[in-house]
């Protein structure tokens, strides 16, 4: 998948028209006066259409909205919670090459999907909500916790400002497994963390490292 500026930033194509100027040589025998000036309004070019706003657009805006926050701007991660948990909706994006390098399964919080439908219904930043929070995250340090090697996240927006206090992190979990998708049509839910397959979570942490953007959201 190519995250090109044409698709996600939607730059318009400018149209220009040249004006031809006629000149005459010699003096006419009879002077012909021009008719009355036209009162018709000047022609205008139609506005260039712009594609719909995408999660990538929001992520790029977040990079600009937090200048000096991210030590690295070459790679980002997108968690697209518009999609069901059965889909590989977590994307590792190489901005330098303009492409998605890898797409992975990721869990959302049980508080965001109380009926266990596999679709995120709502976000929350409240402690104890067990919900996913949307917005821009700064990747922080690696540590070893309940699920082994994990990574802390710092919420940069009002919608995810409690991420550190709520211990919203990147970690692996046995309830994120393609076999669960085959059996029940969805993976399990976290308590708001970005949970991945146990065998693949290190790919996420190694790709992002510290000081990069992880952006989570939902485009309706």
Report on the architecture of this protein.
This protein has 220 residues and is of the alpha+beta class. The protein has one domain: Beta Barrel (L,D-transpeptidase catalytic domain-like), CATH 2.40.440.10. 15% of the residues lie in helices and 22% in strands. An eight-stranded mixed beta sheet has the order 3-2-1-8-4-5-6-7. The longest helix has 11 residues.
Work out the number of β strands.
8
| Structural domain count | 1
CATH architecture assignment name? Beta Barrel
Roughly how much helix do the residues carry, as a percent range? 10-25%
**Separate helix tally:** 5
Instruction: Give the N-terminus to C-terminus distance in angstroms.
Output: 21 Å
User: Which spans have pLDDT < 50 for at least 5 consecutive residues?
Assistant: 2-39
Q: What gross morphology would you assign?
A: globular
SSE ordering: HHEEEEEHEHEHE
Strand pairing plus helix content: what structural class? Answer: alpha+beta
Mean pLDDT: 84
Walk across the major sheet and give the strand order: 3-2-1-8-4-5-6-7
CATH superfamily: L,D-transpeptidase catalytic domain-like
């Amino acid at each position: 998948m190519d995250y090109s500026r044409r698709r996600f930033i939607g730059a318009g194509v400018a149209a220009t028209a040249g004006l031809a100027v006629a000149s005459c040589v010699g003096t006419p025998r009879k002077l012909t006066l021009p008719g009355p000036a036209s009162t018709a309004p000047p022609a205008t070019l139609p506005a260039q259409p712009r594609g719909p706003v995408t999660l990538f657009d929001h992520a790029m805006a977040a990079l600009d909205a937090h200048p000096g926050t991210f030590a690295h701007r070459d790679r980002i991660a997108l968690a697209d919670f518009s999609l069901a948990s059965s889909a590989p909706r977590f994307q590792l994006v190489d901005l330098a090459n303009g492409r998605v390098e890898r797409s992975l399964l990721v869990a959302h919080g049980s508080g965001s999907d109380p009926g266990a439908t596999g679709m995120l219904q709502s976000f929350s930043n409240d402690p104890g909500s067990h919900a996913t929070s949307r917005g821009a995250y700064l990747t922080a340090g690696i540590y070893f916790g309940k699920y082994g090697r994990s990574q802390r996240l710092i919420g940069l927006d009002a919608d995810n400002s409690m991420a550190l206090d709520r211990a919203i992190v990147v970690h692996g979990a046995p309830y994120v497994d393609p076999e669960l998708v085959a059996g029940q049509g969805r993976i399990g839910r976290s308590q708001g963390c970005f949970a991945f397959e146990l065998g693949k979570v290190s790919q996420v942490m190694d790709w992002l490292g510290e000081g990069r953007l992880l952006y989570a959201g939902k485009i309706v």
